[in-house]
Write a structure and sequence with these properties.
Shape: elongated
Order of helices and strands: EEHHEEEEHEEHH
Helix content: 40-55%
Number of strands: 8
Number of helices: 5
Number of domains: 2
Mean pLDDT: 81
Radius of gyration: 22 Å
Strand content: 15-25%
Structural class: alpha+beta
Largest sheet: 5 strands, antiparallel
Strand order of the largest sheet: 1-2-3-4-5
Distance between the termini: 30 Å
Low-confidence stretches: 121-149
Length: about 200
């Protein structure tokens, strides 16, 4: 799947397809989890054979099959997760799709607050950060965990609640997305103060 962000212009709407935003090292973690869980399921399946009148064999076999299904569902749901924004003159529509799930949420422009960019959430540094004896890479592991559970780099407040989206969309791509949104909405698009610095910094390069 392409990591390229695609923009589709129409007379009455702008569609922004955010593409595959999953980092390669996060995909490696997903694959590793799938292999470990699948390996456990294989062990259970082998233990359950041969199937006979022994009810424990049947229970173990069914448990192994369920484990296979859960591992496959989790893996494919994460790998296939995609986000799309649809802008029209009355609403911003956020569409999130996965393996068997498609979630479409409509947000009225009149109730949408300024758009923010948060990047990666701040975290407490590991005590061994920067130390030559961090042999086990605890700081790197915490950064990976942070990326794994990140919920989105862009957000706006809607009815008093933050709406986060743009998972894996970092500053250099976020700036392009905001420029396109601004071309469509003009001055009606409300931007938080951090965009002034980000966009000006990019323009001077």
């Amino acid at each position: 799947m392409s990591r390229e962000i695609k923009y589709r212009w129409g007379s009455e709407q702008l569609i922004i397809e955010l593409g595959d935003r999953i980092q390669p090292r996060i995909k490696v973690l997903f694959i590793a989890e799938f292999l470990v869980t699948g390996g456990m399921a294989t062990v259970f399946m082998l233990q359950s054979r041969p199937f006979s009148a022994n009810w424990m064999h049947w229970v173990t076999g069914i448990g192994a099959a369920c484990l296979y299904l859960v591992a496959s569902y989790r893996f494919l749901s994460r790998i296939l997760f995609r986000e799309k924004l649809v802008l029209n003159h009355s609403e911003l529509i956020l569409i999130q799709t996965s393996l068997f799930v498609r979630k479409t949420i409509f947000y009225d422009w009149s109730m949408i607050g300024p758009l923010h960019y948060v990047g990666k959430d701040s975290k407490t540094d590991h005590p061994l950060k920067g130390q030559c004896y961090d042999y086990f890479g605890f700081e790197t592991q915490e950064q990976l965990i942070q990326s794994l559970h990140q919920s989105g780099n862009l957000y706006f407040n809607y009815g008093g609640f933050p709406i986060r989206f743009g998972q894996g969309v970092y500053s250099w791509h976020a700036e392009d997305v905001v420029r396109m949104m601004k071309l469509f909405r003009g001055e009606k698009l409300l931007l938080a103060p951090e965009w002034d610095h980000m966009l000006q910094e990019n323009d001077t390069i």
